[in-house]
Design brief:
The structure holds two protein chains of two kinds. Chain A is α/β, with parallel strands linked by helices. Chain A has two domains: 234 residues, 3-Layer(aba) Sandwich (Rossmann fold), CATH 3.40.50; 238 residues, P-loop containing nucleotide triphosphate hydrolases (Rossmann fold, 3-Layer(aba) Sandwich). Chain A contains 18 helices and 20 strands. In chain A, strand 14 and strand 15 form a beta hairpin. In chain B, 73% of the residues lie in helices and 3% in strands. Chain B has 15 helices and two strands. Chain B has a two-stranded antiparallel ribbon with strand order 1-2. In chain B, helix 4 packs across helix 11. Chain B is globular and about 60 Å long. Classes of the chains: A alpha/beta, B mainly alpha. Chains A and B meet through helix 2 of A and helix 9, helix 10 and helix 15 of B.
């Protein structure tokens, strides 16, 4: 395969968005039937690269060849016709349509007046699913499928459109180990058919496991491409960040500290059951589980957003009943949500206004107004304490980077001086350098005696920051682990298994 | 994953049916119909039913157009105003200029389609949210109509317009005349066409796709702009047909006769399971929605209940049916995690 003509070849491709160089002089090739991995931190240009090849963004300069022929200018329809398919992270499926209509969707794209040939669509769908050796109800609505099944539908759609090269953006983010294995089996089938697959992934172990070659990107440039045998996870991580990331373990034995939050037999029908744990002052307790394990549902219940059906909670020894999140805030529980942009911050408003949000009541003066001066002071304090990089606290939050936005959310809740801080996936969409910064804030807070619950699906994250880790699956806590007593690898095996 | 769970196709067909809003609507209609037929003597008589059909044909035709827009993921409040404008323009051409029938009808349809496309233009190119754009358009076109017409009705419609066209008639035993007239036939044709078009044609499937996930539709190369024009243009066309039929039924063109019907039509579509967020809904559902509204209004009329009470009942029915949908989907979501657990572990 090494001496064959590359299916895709980029030469000197650059892309500039209003002054920002998103891609710089990229030379890159993908061979026919190759499994290739594209890795890099958030904002390194991976997505821009995919979109350029898919014809969404025309490159500012450089050339793109497919099958040895120059193809620019490229648009999405032309890229598709040339066999380029992108499976976006959101899968881009139509939840309201059936499996068969999703897979054979191209059949509905012809002349608008033409009748749709449903039997032909079903036949096509069946043939494609057969090629994948996968069985699905053709008439089921996609909204009724599991995430893994939806992924299959997205891949099948690419196949039905006669893909020669399929990009998969973070395909494994919400899959269990068994589902990932099945996906990988399907990918090797594609390879056997001569279809190249480019994975864009942040779980480095998978990268090493299935790919033939790895391309690392950083800051809009290609760092290099290596055969998988020549790089290991650690080297890839270092290449991605340009730093030497130290994932040393910080776990401490906190069993003698005062308990701050005690949870017994907490159950909410259908979401989680029999949750028991004790969080101590100054402890960082990790809760790991895959998407859909009930971890977020539990967090919402601990924060009073969802009522529990049975079980008890106690805060500093006193029984705690939460009727709403207002009760939780009053009791001293803060929650930084997974959906930072949707629930955590109000984007168009200033940093100061956002930070003030949760403590507005305590800041009002006798007239029921909020003095501008104390508002500025509060914002200024937090901008400084969390090292939020901004020229002024008057800037709208939407002008900040992901990492800095996350710090604003943290500041908002820290201003309430919480006893318990629940962080749900605090580093999603934050690059490695900024992640490190957020971890430092977390351990700082823990040192000040705040009990912290860190919810995550990244084992490496909880392994490096938590004192204890609870493993959640199917709405239950399966086991408790202490980083260091088990290795990171073992913990990953258990969680993704 | 669910492969391990055995599910016979019959079982899944039944669950699917139970989850359809149409099925529930049908049950409600049967219950309400039974109550009325027991309490109001004339309710189930053939003349009353045919009369109901004719009365609601105009709204049903507009509902078909609105349904298409709802599926595409948009909303339109202006169609009743569009219907009035198209009707009045056609009436002017017919009564003042004495144009022949085909020309008048074509002009009326053209006015409707143009107003619909204007909505699409505002929504797609100017990027105004559909509800805002169409509220503004409703205001503008209806006010222009009232301004230029001075609110005056046109009573001198030509005979070809106002003469009843009867396709079939019969006399019941009690001596009542039962006639299948043009509005009923038009409603049936429009309904069947919309149904086939939305289910079978590429355009229809693309509209469903766009309503389900507009971004994904754009990514696979569906021409969103053109579909907006198709959807709003179709509604404009339907509004024009409805408007001209309404004048045909009452024998005159009254500028504000159709004003305020938009909410009843929208209610029917929503009752019938058309989702306001797009992508979901069926023609039979919308039709059943209209039927329920018709039955409620007619039945309450026959019982001599005030028409305000009818409005209250409609409001409560909509609240009840939409909250039922939300609550049942929420429960479904909540039960997933633990239910899937054994298969996962």
């Amino acid at each position: 395969m090494t001496d064959s003509v590359p299916f895709l070849r980029l030469r000197n491709v650059s892309k500039t968005f209003v002054g920002v160089r998103a891609l710089q002089d990229i030379d890159w090739e993908v061979k026919p039937g190759e499994i290739h991995c594209l890795v890099g931190e958030n904002g390194c240009g991976k997505s821009t690269l995919i979109k350029t090849v898919a014809g969404v963004h025309p490159p500012t300069s450089g050339t793109i060849e497919i099958g040895g022929e120059e193809v620019l200018p490229l648009d999405p329809a032309k890229a598709k016709a040339l066999g380029i398919q992108v499976i976006f992270q959101d899968l881009s499926l139509f939840p309201n349509l059936s499996v068969s209509e999703n897979i054979a969707v191209d059949d509905t794209l012809q002349n608008m007046l033409m009748p749709v040939n449903k039997p032909a669509m079903r036949k096509k769908t069946r043939a494609v699913l057969e090629r994948l050796a996968f069985d699905l109800d053709l008439d089921a609505a996609v909204s009724d499928l599991s995430v893994a099944e939806r992924q299959i539908v997205a891949i099948a759609r690419g196949l039905a459109a006669e893909a020669r090269l399929i990009f998969m953006d973070e395909p494994t983010a919400s899959l269990t180990r068994a589902e990932v294995d099945r996906l990988l089996a399907i990918v090797s089938r594609l390879k056997a058919d001569g279809i190249a697959v480019v994975f864009v992934s942040h779980r480095l172990d998978e990268v090493v496991e299935i790919a033939e070659r790895v391309t690392v990107m950083r800051d809009g440039r290609k760092v290099g491409t290596w055969p998988v045998g020549e790089v290991d996870q650690k080297k890839i991580a270092n290449l991605m960040t340009g730093l030497n990331i130290d994932n040393s373990i910080v776990a401490r034995d906190m069993s003698s500290a005062e308990p701050v939050l005690e949870v017994k037999n907490l159950t909410r029908h259908g979401e989680f059951a029999d949750i028991d744990f004790t969080l101590r002052c100054g402890e960082v307790l990790g809760i790991v589980g895959l998407l859909g394990s009930g971890r977020t549902e539990l967090a919402l219940a601990l924060f009073g957003m969802h009522r529990v059906d049975s079980g008890t909670m106690a805060l500093e020894g006193k029984p705690l009943t939460l009727r709403s999140n207002r009760d939780a805030v009053r009791a001293g529980i803060a929650y930084v949500s997974e959906d930072r942009l949707g629930l955590g911050v109000i984007l168009p408003q200033s940093i100061g206004d956002n930070i003030m949000l949760a403590v507005m009541k305590s800041m009002t003066n006798g007239l029921g107004l909020i003095p501008d001066k104390s508002c500025r002071k509060l914002a200024g304090d937090w901008v400084q304490r969390l090292a939020i990089k901004v020229p002024s606290a008057d800037r709208a939050v939407q002008t900040l980077s992901g990492g800095n936005q996350q710090r604003v959310v943290l500041a908002k809740w820290l201003a309430t001086k919480p006893k318990v801080l629940i962080l749900d996936s605090p580093t999603v969409g934050v690059d490695i350098k900024n992640k490190q910064g957020i971890y430092e804030v977390v351990s700082d807070l823990a040192r000040q005696g705040v009990g912290i619950i860190l919810i995550s699906d990244e084992v490496s994250e909880v392994f490096a920051t938590c004192d204890r880790v609870l493993h959640m699956r199917g709405g239950r806590i399966l086991e408790e682990e202490v980083p260091g007593r088990v290795s990171e690898h073992d913990m990953e095996e258990r969680i993704y298994a | 994953m669910r492969d391990g769970v055995p599910s016979t196709s019959a079982q899944s067909a039944l669950t699917r049916l139970r989850r359809r809003p149409e099925a529930w609507l049908l049950v409600v209609i049967l219950i309400v119909g039974t109550i009325f037929s027991l309490t109001a003597r004339d309710f189930l008589s053939l003349p009353n039913i045919i009369d109901l059909l004719e009365t609601y044909s105009v709204q049903a035709i507009m509902a078909m157009g609105l349904f298409v827009v709802l599926v595409s993921g948009g909303i339109d409040i202006s169609f009743a105003a569009t219907a009035s404008v198209a009707q009045y323009c056609a009436a002017l051409l017919a009564s003042q200029l004495g144009l022949p029938a085909p020309l008048v009808i074509m002009s009326g349809l053209a006015v409707g389609a143009i107003l619909g496309c204007l909505n699409a233009l505002l929504i797609h190119y100017v990027r105004i949210t559909s509800i805002i754009a169409t509220i503004a358009m409703m205001s503008v076109s209806f006010s222009l109509l009232m301004y230029f017409s001075g609110g005056k009705s046109i009573y001198t419609l030509p005979d070809w317009w106002t003469d009843r066209i009867v396709f079939w008639q019969t006399e019941t035993e009690s001596g009542d005349l039962v006639r299948i007239t043009l509005p009923i036939v038009a409603m049936v044709v429009v309904t069947l066409f919309t149904w086939a078009w939305m289910i079978r044609s590429s355009a229809g499937r693309q509209l469903y796709a766009m309503g389900g996930n507009a971004e994904a539709a754009r990514r696979i190369g569906i021409d969103i702009g053109r579909l907006q024009f198709v959807a709003y243009g179709y509604l404009g066309l339907m509004a024009a047909i409805a408007g001209m039929l309404q004048a045909h039924r009452v024998g005159e063109s009254v500028p504000n006769a159709m004003y305020n019907t938009e909410l009843a039509v929208l209610s029917a579509a929503v009752l019938g399971g058309a989702s306001l967020t797009g992508g979901i809904g069926t023609v039979p559902g919308v039709l059943l929605g209209i039927v329920l509204l018709a039955i409620l209004q007619n039945g309450l009329n026959l019982l001599g209940v005030s028409s305000y009470f009818f409005q209250i009942v409609i409001g409560i029915t909509i609240l009840a049916s939409t909250s039922l949908t939300v609550i049942s989907s929420r429960r479904g979501r909540r039960h997933r995690i633990l239910a899937e657990a054994p298969a996962n572990g």
